[in-house]
Design goal:
Layout (H helix, E strand, L loop, with lengths): L8 E6 L6 H10 L4 E6 L5 H6 L5 E5 L7 E9 L1 E6 L20 E2 L23 H9 L4 E5 H6 L5 E5 L6 E8 L6 H10 L18 H33 L3 H13 L6
Parallel strand pairs: 1-2, 1-3, 6-7
Antiparallel strand pairs: 3-9, 4-9, 5-7, 5-8
Length: 266
């Protein structure tokens, strides 16, 4: 790929709770001339957005359709229960599902957890969104189980959360449209999220070829430097040779001078 073939921008989708800031910062450091556009999407919308070409890659929640999208799992989130700050469960460091059996556990329509059996007691009506469910928790209607990043995203001063180790967990992945060859800029971003160094050859777009005239100039400079080095080496050898010879004439002159300087006896 030549410099003119490299796209001038890269679109990255991300879902609520995922923070791409550190990776975006590295992108700007490594590819300052290729802009990165962030596209926010819900967890349900993100896979379709990628499949339709609305973004080049995305930070999404698994599962996704692997026949349509490629994906690299990045990390797994702890599930927490969001509760009022005066709730009895705040006395513990973590909460079991059994301890929620008497609670009304809100189950929003955009829930991200794959439940086999819902814990607690169901609410009369399912909230439309996680944000709506948070408002109901604050109103004392029930409690809510979500990935920890969503509890932080919807933080309120009157609410807190505790880990629930037995609950299903949510996995975050980097995903992009399935293709025979992964696009160069997607490879670049894969390298960034995997922590590859800037000198890594994997995942980096090929540098544009240098013009022939530049190569000729460099070759001429190399040859000139080589000739200068050879001349310098020959000159140094001559100097060393001259320094190693004894001044024969100077020795004879010195000897004669010594004889003239000795007074003749009368």
């Amino acid at each position: 790929m030549t410099g003119s073939d490299i796209p001038s921008s890269f679109r990255l989708a991300y879902v609520p709770g995922v923070t791409p800031t550190k990776w975006v910062r590295v992108w700007h450091e490594r590819l300052p001339h290729t802009s990165l556009e962030l596209v926010q999407a819900t967890a349900a919308e993100a896979p379709e957005l990628l499949a339709d070409g609305g973004a080049d890659a995305g930070l999404v929640r698994l599962p996704v359709d692997r026949d349509v999208l490629s994906a690299i799992p990045l990390y797994t989130e702890t599930t927490v229960v969001v509760i009022p700050k005066d709730h009895v469960a705040t006395a513990a460091e973590e909460v079991s599902l059994a301890e929620l059996s008497d609670e009304i556990v809100l189950h929003p329509l955009d829930d991200l957890l794959a439940w086999e059996t819902l814990p607690g007691r169901p609410a009369v009506e399912r909230p439309a969104t996680t944000a709506d469910a948070i408002e109901l928790v604050a109103a004392g209607v029930g409690v809510l189980l979500v990935p920890q990043s969503l509890a932080r995203l919807h933080h309120r001063k009157d609410l807190t959360y505790r880990p629930v180790p037995e609950a299903p967990e949510s996995r975050v992945a980097l995903s992009w449209p399935e293709a025979e060859t992964t696009p160069d800029l997607v490879e670049e971003f894969i390298g960034i999220v995997r922590g590859r160094t800037v000198n890594s050859t994997r995942g980096r777009a090929a540098a544009p070829p240098r013009p022939a005239k530049d190569k000729a100039k460099d070759k001429a400079k190399d040859n000139k430097g080589k000739r200068a080095g050879e001349r310098g080496g020959a000159g140094g050898a001559r100097n060393r040779s001259a320094a190693g010879r004894k001044p024969q004439s100077g020795g004879r002159t010195g000897g004669q001078g010594g004889k003239r300087g000795k007074p003749r006896g009368r």
